[in-house]
Amino acid sequence: MTSGHYGSALGVGMVKCDLCDAEATVHETQIVNGQVMVRRLCERHAAENGLTGVAATHVSSPSATVVLSMNKPGSALRCETCGLSYAAFRQHGLLGCPSCYETFEDKLSPLIERAHQGGTHHIGKTPRRMLAAAQDGDVQAIERVLGGARERAERFALLRKQLEEALASEQYERAAVLRDELRRFDAQGQGPTTGPAQDDPPLDEPR
Amino acid sequence: MTGRRQQQSGGSDMPRPGANRGDTQTSAGRASDVVVSSRVRLARNLAGFRFPNRAPASERTAVVVRLKPVVLGARLSPQMEWVDLTSTTAMHRHALVEERLISRQHAMGKAGEPMHGRAVAIGLHERRLSIMINEEDHLRLQVIRRGFDLAGAFEEIDAADDALEQKADYAFSPRFGYLTACPTNVGTGARLSVMLHLPALKITRELEKVKRAADDLGLTVRGSYGEGSDATGDFYQISNQTTIGKSEAVLLREMESEIIPSVIAYERTARERLLKGGRRGMEDQAWRAVGVLLHARLLSTEEATKLLSRIRFGIALGLIPGLKLHLIHQLLVAAQPAHIQMAIGQELTQEQRREARAALLRAKLGEAFAHERPASRLIRPGSPEAAPEPPVGPSNRPPTVDPGDQGPGNANDR
């Protein structure tokens, strides 16, 4: 289990690190000959002391017991729909329901980005019936499938960037696929505006 | 066969988009000298339900009740078979794993029994479509095609996905795409894999280069049964890891037109080099494997897989006329433990399995040679006769790789 990313917004009941002003995320309890010693460390200092990567460890010897417990801020965050806590997700790696993506969005985003070569937004298939139904419906219905204006703009920009990179590195076949993708976005009204087609970068394909 | 199963007719023959026109019952598909099969799978979940890992038994059952008529009514294949995994024997479930129709995880839940509410629907046309219900996600759709045909597999699974979506509300977000229990599948939910036979790259020790290159491109190289499985017989699976930020079309193009073709070319070059360096030796290796399989009385799965791999290599190099790659692919599955027991119709001890496996392979391989060369006086399955002589004269099958030096030459002994 990696140490992960923790939001700073959730500073309720924050405990400071023994060695600096940062928030303590690792609490180490040592019981040596019946005497209890507690250390509270931030992520950095915990790492320097070799205390990361462990959720809870018990090391027992006749004279000493070490109990490590990591009290991660944000661990208490819980999905209202399925009751899964973020801490439980970090332990098992599985989310509990579709709503978890919304609940844990801030925390999941960097994890997803790292696991997917920097991928941040879905580019690709949209459920076809859902899309067709939305296009007959109101703005809200469309936004549920394609996202709000900002999200659409972000996605469109990402695709444009991929296309420009493909062109710059002379990967013309890849560029052609991406250009088709952009056109499909326009056709579905996924672009940031109603008529972004004229912004298409020129594509001179040496065939 | 045990377990609750139902068959449902899905109407007349479905159109098969992207189907290999030359496909016959025994064809092993495009680029089959190197590629065994191509697989595309999609992960999908229903809106309004918890993911299987978080859902109580009653909710998993509700998902099955919701999906069963959708899956069976969508006309995905001329005939669909529905298998309720909770009420099947372990042997039957293992056999499905060996056929790659379900994952090991789907076959064995906690305590060796699948979780309540697990099922699989199998498209009976070539048994190449399977839809797992309540695996890690509510729906795992996959199509396996023979040989190198990711585009065909993708087209087929995409159509199946559309058909199911007509009647099912998927969990989808504009930002993250198709929502999956594990964030490593989120986005397109699509995993494209190609099963490759890379014995030459193994011999020339160039496999590490392939692995490193694949890693740089966001792909992963694993053993033949996926995560955590070994690569017995030099069978490797290459698949994408990235599922978000890249469209299905771009991913498909990368794998179908760039990455996999270069791995195929790399393996073929290594084969040509090996043939030039010692054709006789390679021929000997392949025919020795035939000899062992025709006469062995006890065989483990591992040994059988290795021998079949060597024979496969020999066929691909044009060194064993008369045998077809597709037969070897069938035998690779038939030699697996659960298949052996299903064939006999009862549970067997390991020792009994080894005996039954050897008998089965003797019979099947003997049959194939007898069928191919009816004039041959040799090969009675199970008979103590001498090994068959290598056939003389030109092969009916053109070799897949230019054999290079035709003369016997001074082969390297290996």
Structural overview:
The complex is a heterodimer of chains A (207) and B (414). Chain A has helices spanning 43-48, 86-92, 100-103, 105-115, 128-136, 139-146, 149-168, 172-187, and strands spanning 26-32, 35-41, 56-60, 64-70. Chain A has 207 residues and is α+β, with helices and mostly antiparallel strands. A four-stranded antiparallel beta sheet of chain A has the order 2-1-4-3. The longest helix of chain A is centred in the C-terminal third of the chain and has 20 residues, at 149-168. Chain A is elongated, with a radius of gyration of 24 Å. The model of chain A is unreliable at 1-13, 53-68 and 193-207 (pLDDT under 50). In chain B, helix 7 (248-295) packs across helix 11 (350-372), helix 8 runs antiparallel to helix 9 and helix 10 (337-344) packs across helix 11. Chain B has eleven helices and eleven strands. By secondary structure, chain B is α+β, with helices and mostly antiparallel strands. Helix content of chain B is 40%, strand content 15%. In chain B, the strands form two sheets. Chain B has a nine-stranded antiparallel beta sheet with strand order 1-3-4-5-6-2-9-11-10, with helices on one face. Chain B has a two-stranded antiparallel ribbon with strand order 7-8. Chain B has helices at residues 57-73, 90-98, 104-107, 150-165, 199-203, 207-216, 248-295, 301-316, 325-334, 337-344, 350-372; strands spanning 5-9, 35-44, 79-84, 119-123, 129-133, 139-146, 172-173, 177-178, 190-197, 219-223, 235-240. The radius of gyration of chain B is 22 Å and the shape is globular. At the A-B interface, helix 4, helix 5, helix 6, helix 7 and helix 8 of A face helix 4, strand 7, strand 8 and helix 7 of B.
